[in-house]
Amino acid sequence: MDLLPLYLSAKLAAIATVILIGLAAPLAWWLTNGAWPGKSFVEALFNLPIALPPTVIGFYLLFVLGPRGSVGRAWETLFGGPLLFTFTGIVVASIFYSLPFAVQPIKASFERIDPRLKESAYVLGLSPAATFFRVIIPNSLSGIAAAAILVFLHTMGAFGVVLMVGGSIAGETRVASIAIYEAVESMQYEKAWTLSLAFIPIGYGFLLLVNRLTRK
Amino acid sequence: MGLTAVLKKKTKFFTIDVELSCPDGQTLALIGPSGSGKTTIIRMLAGLVTPDEGRIVYRDRLFFDSARGVNLPPQKRKLGYVFQDYSLFPHLTLYGNAAFAARDRGEVDALMGFFGLAELRDRKPHQVSGGERQRCAVCQALARNPQLLLLDEPFSALDVVTRRILRNGLKKIMGKRTCPMVYVTHDVTEALFIGNTVLPIVAGSVDQEWMERITAPAAGMDAGAKAARATRLALAY
Question: CA-to-CA distance for B152 and A213, rounded, in angstroms?
Answer without folding.
Answer: 35
